[in-house]
Amino acid sequence: MILEAVKMDCDSSIISSVLEDCKWGSDRIEYFTKHFLDWKPDLEALLARTGSSFPHVVDVDWRLDYYIKEVGKAQGKDVQFSCSMEQLQDLVGKLKDACKSIEKAASN
């Protein structure tokens, strides 16, 4: 709860209402809120320095290249990456757009 309150930049009124919903007494709420607000800047700085996100695909650029492979040549390495389902759907959409553009260019 503390980290979420820092992430959402909650003020004392929001924290108080959440703790009241959790059936905390007014003295405990006041004590917690005071100390939370005292430590909030330090917690914000700590969260700013802490991260656990992986690199992710943010955009796709493409171009039409022609490669002629000779028989007997070694194959290239496979590209490996990871992404969320939403990012994968976005990538698939962009690749479909690229395919449509290639088909359009080929028909002209």
What's the alpha carbon Rg, rounded to whole Å? Answer: 26 Å
The structure class reads: mainly alpha
Order of helices and strands: HHHH
Biggest pleated sheet? none
The proportion of strand residues reads under 5%
Average the pLDDT over all residues and give the rounded result: 81
Number of helices: 4
Helix content: 55-70%
Poorly predicted runs are: none
Principal-axes geometry comes out as: elongated
Number of strands: 0
Describe the protein's architecture and organization:
By secondary structure, the protein is mainly α. It has four helices and no strands. It has helices spanning 2-7, 12-21, 26-49, 85-107. The longest helix is centred in the middle third of the chain and has 24 residues, at 26-49. The chain is elongated, with a radius of gyration of 26 Å.
